[in-house]
Write a structure and sequence with these properties.
This protein is an alpha/beta fold. The chain folds into two domains: 203 residues, Rossmann fold (3-Layer(aba) Sandwich), CATH 3.40.50; 182 residues, Glycogen Phosphorylase B (Rossmann fold). It has 18 helices and 13 strands. The strands form two sheets. It has a seven-stranded parallel β-sheet with strand order 3-2-1-4-5-6-7, with helices on both faces. A six-stranded parallel β-sheet has the order 10-9-8-11-12-13, sandwiched between helices. The longest helix has 34 residues.
Length: 429
C-alpha cells in the first residue's frame, strides 16, 4: 500500500507511537510518506533511534513555517506564491479565500501547510495523526490536493484540550466526510461518539510498545533498603508531576531511604526545580531530563515503583494510556496511576497497581507507602502488568491490526464502488 502520514511537527521525541507505526508499516513492505504540516520538531540535536534506523527524514515533506512577524510573513508569502502559484493556481486562490476560511486564510496558514501537496498526490491511505490534522487532511482532499481513504486517529489533546478551545462542533464535517476513525482508548472513543461520530466508523487501536525491548524483572525489596521511585513523561501540567513531588515530600517524613527520579523535559522544568527547593527534597528528587530509550530502560531496571499522577490540565488536556506506563509495567514494576482519561483501561486497580484520584498528593503518598511496606505484592503486580501489556499493547500485534484496518477500508470502498457501478448500469439499462 501507498500511505501518507499527516502529522504536526516531526519528528517529536515524545511521539514514539507515531514512529512505531511508521516503522511497522515499512517493515511490512508498505510505502510511507510523512507530511509535517507544522514543520520540523523544535528540539535539540537528540533524535529518536527509529528516525535514523529507517531514514525517516528522507521520506518527510515539510510545510514551511510562517514567520511570526506580519511584515516578514507577507514577504515570505509573496515568495511562496511566486515559486508555487503555477503549480496549482486554483488551489492557491481557494486557500487564500478569506470569505470561506477566515483567519486561517488571512494569516496564510492554509497556504503554508498545503505547499508540499499543491500539485496533488494520490495514496491508498491518508492517515492523519490527531484530529486537528484530520481537519487539514479533509480540506486537502476536498480541494483535490490529496486522494485516498481518509483515516484519522484521535490521541488525547485533540479530543480534550482542542475541544475546549474550538468547541464541540469542530469535528462535525470530519465525522461526516472522513472514512474511518481510530482512538487509542475506549475513553476517547466514547467521547468521539458523543460528539457525533458514528459508532460503526470508529474503533480502538492502542499505542503499542515493543515488549521484547523491555525485559521483565521481578521486583524485590532491596537489601540496602533504598527504594527508587520513578516517573517518566514530559514536564507539562497534565502529567501531574507536581503531585508526585508533593507526595514524595510527604513520604520523606516517614521513609528516609527513598529516591525519586523524574525522566523527561518540558516547559515546567524551572517550576519543578523551585518546588523541589521549596519542599526541601533536593537530596532525594532528581530531574534527569529526557533520555534515550536505552538510558530509560537502565533507570527503570534499577527502580522499584513507578508513579504516573496524570491530571486534567486547566486547558482541558487529558491523557490516554501512556506508553511510559506500559514500558514500566512490561518491565515488572508495580505502578500507581490516577482515575484519569484512559489510564484505568491500562492499570487494573489492585491487580497490576493502584489508581488514586487526580491532584491528591496525600492518597498518592499513602499508596506508595503501602507498596513500600508490602513488598510481597511487587512480584505479583509486576507479573499482572506484564501480562496486560503483552495482551493489549504489543506493538507488532497492533501494527498487524493497523494493516488489517487499512485493507478493510480499501476493500469496503472497492465493494461500495462496484455496487454503485452496478446500480448505475441497471438504471441506464
Amino acid at each position: 500500500m501507498k500511505i501518507a502520514f499527516l502529522v504536526g511537527n516531526f519528528p517529536v521525541l515524545s511521539e514514539t507511537f507515531i514512529l512505531n507505526q511508521i516503522a511497522g508499516l515499512m517493515e511490512r513492505g508498505h510505502q510511507v510518506d510523512i507530511y509535517a504540516l507544522d514543520g520540523p520538531a523544535n528540539h535539540t540535536a537528540k533524535v529518536h533511534p527509529i528516525v535514523e534506523k529507517y531514514n525517516l527524514l528522507k521520506h518527510t515533506y515539510y510545510s514551511p513555517t510562517p514567520p511570526d512577524n506580519q511584515l516578514l510573513r507577507e514577504l515570505k508569502t509573496n515568495e511562496l506564491l511566486i515559486d508555487n502559484f503555477g503549480r496549482n493556481p486554483s488551489a492557491c486562490r481557494k486557500l487564500l479565500d478569506v470569505s470561506k476560511y477566515g483567519k486561517r486564510a488571512k494569516s496564510f496558514k492554509l497556504l503554508y501547510k498545503a505547499i508540499p501537496v499543491l500539485e496533488g498526490k494520490s495514496y491508498d491511505i491518508i492517515h492523519c495523526q490527531f484530529g486537528s490534522v484530520g481537519l487539514m487532511g479533509l480540506l486537502f482532499r476536498n480541494l483535490g490536493l490529496l486522494q485516498g481513504t481518509l483515516i484519522t486517529t484521535f490521541r488525547g489533546s485533540d479530543i480534550s484540550k482542542y475541544l475546549k478551545k474550538w468547541g464541540d462542533q469542530v469535528y462535525d464535517q470530519l465525522f461526516a466526510e472522513g472514512d474511518f476513525f481510530l482512538t487509542n482508548c475506549e475513553f476517547f472513543r466514547q467521547r468521539a461518539i458523543q460528539l457525533g461520530c458514528e459508532a460503526t466508523k470508529i474503533r480502538i487501536l492502542g499505542s503499542g510498545i515493543d515488549c521484547s525491548k523491555f525485559a521483565f524483572t521481578p521486583r524485590y525489596f532491596p537489601a540496602d533498603g533504598h527504594i527508587r521511585i520513578a516517573t517518566t513523561g514530559r514536564l507539562v501540567e497534565k502529567k501531574g508531576i507536581e503531585y508526585g513531588i508533593r507526595a514524595i515530600a510527604k513520604l520523606a517524613q516517614v521513609h528516609s531511604n527513598i529516591e525519586y527520579n523524574i525522566i523527561g523535559d518540558g516547559p515546567l522544568k524551572e517550576y519543578f526545580q523551585n518546588l523541589i527547593a521549596e519542599l526541601g527534597v533536593g537530596s532525594i528528587v532528581n530531574l534527569l531530563g529526557w533520555k534515550q530509550q536505552k538510558e530509560l530502560i537502565q533507570i527503570l531496571d534499577k527502580s522499584h515503583i513507578l508513579i504516573a499522577p496524570s491530571v486534567t490540565a486547566a486547558d482541558g488536556n487529558q491523557d490516554a494510556p501512556v506508553n511510559t506506563l506500559k514500558e514500566a509495567m512490561a518491565m515488572g514494576l508495580p505502578v500507581i496511576g490516577t482515575f484519569h482519561g484512559g489510564i484505568p483501561e491500562l492499570i487494573e486497580n489492585g491487580t497490576s497497581g493502584f489508581l488514586v484520584p487526580e491532584r491528591d498528593a496525600d492518597t498518592l503518598a499513602e499508596k506508595v507507602s503501602y507498596l513500600i511496606e508490602h513488598p510481597e505484592l511487587w512480584q505479583s503486580m509486576g507479573q499482572a502488568g506484564r501480562r496486560r501489556v503483552e495482551e493489549k499493547y504489543d506493538m507488532h500485534k497492533l501494527n498487524d491490526e493497523l494493516v488489517e484496518i487499512y485493507q478493510q477500508q480499501l476493500n469496503s470502498k472497492s465493494t461500495h464502488s462496484q455496487v454503485e457501478q452496478l446500480t448505475s448500469s441497471v438504471v441506464e439499462t
